[in-house]
Input
Amino acid sequence: MLPEGRSRRSGDGRRDLTAIAISCFARYGYQGTSIDRIAREAGVTKGAIYHHFRSKEDLLAAAVMDRIGEFETRVQSACRAAAPDESLRRIAEVCAQHATSEDRPRFAIKLMVESIETNDPVVEEMRGMMRRFRAFLRNIIRAGQDGALFRADADADALAALFTSAVIGAETQFYLDPKRFSLEHTLETFVDQMLDNLRLAGAAQAREGGAIRD
Output
């Protein structure tokens, strides 16, 4: 077993390489990124990269897993102890912050385009992430329904898919036109309207109850 300090440095080196790989894949795409390019960007030898990763494919898979893990951790942390409606707002905020930091939106979009028919492991990782994201959203919506905060007749699965589609579509527009497209405002508006729709029946009942009391 390696000494604790050395093991930590080794882990840090691996994380540093995946971060640099993300930047390279985002700028040049998978096909345009070589181990030589990543090594130059990282200021290390190819041997140092191969010490941690078997191949470019292995490095890409690790980079994808790191990014997905980071995103999912941020989403879960943001929603901890929050009410369902506040959780949906916080998720939109995390998505906007995550997408506007460094090269991450380009990384995700380019990978989706390049990998759909050429890299099954990456597609599986991203498909799994989207399925977990939809399930997380669905469970939040159902919790709101169970707590009588949201309409009971709302389709939680469909709304979770709609939320996911809104995030992906908004991130794509931001990447293509960052100067004229406000990702934060778009997602905030989407969540506001979604919550208005989810709360519609409850709000109407509250108004009717107030009218009766008057």
About this structure: The longest helix spans residues 183-213. Residues 63-213 form a domain with the Tetracycline Repressor; domain 2 fold (CATH 1.10.357.10). The radius of gyration is 21 Å.
